[in-house]
Design goal:
The protein is of the alpha/beta class. The protein has 10 helices and 10 strands. Bound molecules: zinc ion.
Length: 326
């Protein structure tokens, strides 16, 4: 029989056979605890299905796609840095109780690798970034010469639209009796995200070419830069776990002074002192550069605000960047 996740489980995942076995033995039995001929594997628990997401962007997508059928809990609150986040006992309990788990993967949750791998052995766990076509992912060389894949895929809305579809496929596979509902919601949300993508391209094009440089605290915006035609520079590397030194500050100051860049941006999930060091460096060279505002990078805004949704967070970032650099 076909396994519902077969199409989307990461090829490189060493856990696929184990997940398969667990599902076959526990979760995929028919009405009487036995598979009836021709019956598909089905979710046999209670509704709503309990989904756990690590970061808000993923939680947002599951909420939209699983409307009315899935309850979503996010482990990380707004403003929390996923690269440094360590799972608490409460998180472990939530993961234990979850029916299905979604996370960023590609080492986004760098300090949670072990727990997420453990959970992946006992229940469906989907690293959403790893479901994207390999050729769409950005790879770069770290200082130590190691090649890593950039996990910040939500900043290319056209890629995030694919993630939304994959979440729809995963939920449809897990709960086949509502497959068309999940797929319908996923298609509707995908369409909204693709509209956002076109709007973002048009807005970024309003910035004069020479000013199209986005300076932020950490390297979260490479997908954004590639998708919307703006050069990006971060003080810290792709993970905030890497330190930055005087050399990094000086290099960034040189670029800003040479290009006469007017604004830099802080990030809600990162202390502002890193970007302030660059601001002071520019001032010492006689160049005033303002903090153009706060961007949501690895975390969304408070749930009670428009920035507490993916669409609102993305619009806020675009408007903040364009209005400061234009
Ligand atoms: Zn990041």
């Amino acid at each position: 029989m076909g396994y519902p996740f077969q199409g989307i489980i990461n090829r490189r995942s060493p856990h696929f056979p184990i997940i398969l076995i667990v599902c076959l033995s526990l979760g995929c039995s028919g009405k009487n605890g036995m598979n009836e001929p021709g019956e598909k594997a089905a979710f046999k628990g209670q509704y709503p299905i309990r989904a756990v997401a690590t970061v808000g962007m993923i939680g947002d997508a599951i909420t939209r796609v699983g409307k009315g059928l899935v309850s979503v809990e996010c482990l990380m609150a707004p403003g929390v840095d996923p690269h440094l986040y360590k799972a608490s006992q409460k998180d472990v309990d939530r993961l234990d109780k979850a029916d299905i788990v979604f996370y960023g993967g590609l080492h986004l949750e760098g300090k949670m690798t072990e727990i997420l791998e453990k959970i992946g052995r006992i229940k469906p766990s989907i690293p959403v970034g790893e479901q994207l076509p390999a050729e769409s992912l950005i790879r770069s060389e770290m200082k130590q010469g190691e090649i890593t894949t950039d996990p910040h895929v939500w900043f290319d809305a056209s890629l995030w639209a694919i993630v939304v579809e994959k979440i729809g496929e995963a939920l449809a596979g897990f709960d086949p009796s509502h497959a068309s509902a999940y797929q319908g919601e996923a298609q509707a949300y995908r369409k909204e995200i693709l509209e956002l993508h076109e709007w973002a391209k048009a807005r970024i094009a309003e910035i004069p070419q020479s000013q199209r440089l986005l300076v932020t605290a950490h390297d979260a915006f490479h997908y954004f830069g590639r998708a919307y035609g703006i050069e990006v520079r971060g003080l810290q590397g792709m993970s905030t776990a890497s330190e930055f030194g005087l050399n990094d500050v000086n290099q960034l100051v040189d670029t800003i002074v040479e290009r006469k860049i007017k604004a830099m941006f802080i990030e809600t999930s990162i202390p502002r002192r890193s970007i302030e060091a660059v601001q002071q460096g520019c001032l010492a060279r006689g160049q005033q550069v303002v903090i153009g505002g706060e961007l949501f990078s690895d975390s969304m805004g408070d749930p009670s605000t428009p920035e507490g949704t993916y669409l609102g967070m993305f619009r806020h970032n675009i408007n903040t960047i364009v209005d400061s650099l234009k």
